[in-house]
Amino acid sequence: MAGSLAASAFFPVPGSSPAASARSSKNTTGELPENLSVRGIVAKPNPSPGAMQVKAQAQALPKVNGTKVNLKTTSPDKEDIIPYTAPKTFYNQLPDWSMLLAAVTTIFLAAEKQWTLLDWKPKKPDMLADTFGFGRIIQDGLVFRQNFLIRSYEIGADRTASIETLMNHLQETALNHVKTAGLLGDGFGATPEMSKRNLIWVVSKIQLLVERYPSWGDMVQVDTWVAAAGKNGMRRDWHVRDYNSGQTILRATSVWVMMNKNTRRLSKMPDEVRAEIGPYFNGRSAISEEQGEKLPKPGTTFDGAATKQFTRKGLTPKWSDLDVNQHVNNVKYIGWILESAPISILEKHELASMTLDYRKECGRDSVLQSLTTVSGECDDGNTESSIQCDHLLQLESGADIVKAHTEWRPKRAQGEGNMGFFPAESA
């Protein structure tokens, strides 16, 4: 009795009272008729009375995609819509993993950006790390070291790095040395005190001694340092090695002087500038005095050897040849000098040494000519002898820009061992 009343009260039949519904719904045995459901609505007869299932308390279906499911009756006359609140289940109480993943990703990216923007200049110079290949200061802050990978576009017809490529490495390490030491002003290698006085560095002399030329994919290690050169100059040296074997590739030394950027005249070194760069001076020399070379006077012959002269005219700088100081980059002069070298030398010999004496800067409107005087036989098929050349790069008006002297040795066969002038040294 109690069960039928509860069910009938929960689902009342429209148009009748609960009591009347309860009385009319019972048969003589006190049981519900077979054709009457718990909702008081006529239902399809079941195969057997035992198949009837009655729920004392109805439960709503769980949410589907966040939408409540309403219970519908199968009555053809009227449908009862009864809303229910879904109970809390284990799945409904799980956190939103996509939001958690987005938060973790945001934190990771922020940390990565902060790490990348860190100042890689600790207090002690010897603690500098070459994490990104930018170079580091070693040996008590007196030497700067940087590694370079020889790229495919940096090699020439011999499948080795060109002399211009190696010269660019020297120039790059010089500037990075000044920058890493915290001495870079707003000029091309100028210190803050130099920038205040409109002073810039200009090279007056460079000497190279090449042991061998690296190939595509080789890693080279460049060490550079500075020293005093007279009262108003600075000397910068380089030692280039093979990164894996430690064998010497190239040694170089250079002398730099100061020029006023506005007047284009040479200047004395101010005491304030000397105080900036003085603590970085290193007495070590990459090329000994015995290996040092002075340029011969024009027209000088070597041991009575016959000389031949070759000329290339009409050389003009392009906009891309200028540096930030608005004069032709130092490396460009080397290419112009070799423009007049005979092809027979370039095909059968490789550059072993070069000395350049810079006399005058070259502007973008200059027209130049390159002259090469060869001492020794260079076109008779003899590839076993060394050759020496004198070079002169001058304006077509006659003013000298660069004087140079080069020595050439026969090319080595591919895969030949590193036999050369200079044994490898440990740093």
TrEMBL record:
| EC numbers | 3.1.2.-
Q: Which UniProt keywords apply?
A: Chloroplast, Fatty acid biosynthesis, Fatty acid metabolism, Hydrolase, Lipid biosynthesis, Lipid metabolism, Plastid, Transit peptide
Localization per Swiss-Prot or TrEMBL: Plastid, Chloroplast
> GO: which molecular function terms?
acyl carrier activity; fatty acyl-[ACP] hydrolase activity
Domain Acyl-ACP thioesterase N-terminal hotdog intervals: 141-277
Keyword Plastid appears in the UniProt entry? yes
Ranges in a coiled coil: none
Q: Which InterPro entries match?
A: Acyl-ACP-thioesterase_N, Acyl-ACP_TE_C, Acyl-ACP_thioesterase_NHD, FATA/B, HotDog_dom_sf
GO CC terms in record:
chloroplast
Q: Which residues form the Acyl-ACP thioesterase-like C-terminal domain?
A: 306-409
Q: Where is this region: Disordered?
A: 1-38
Q: What class of enzyme is it?
A: hydrolase
Show where the Acyl-ACP-thioesterase N-terminal domain sits: 1-130
* UniProt biased composition (Low complexity): 1-25
* Subcellular location, principal: plastid
Family in the record: Belongs to the acyl-ACP thioesterase family.
Q: What does this protein do?
A: Plays an essential role in chain termination during de novo fatty acid synthesis.
- UniProt-recorded name of the protein: Acyl-[acyl-carrier-protein] hydrolase
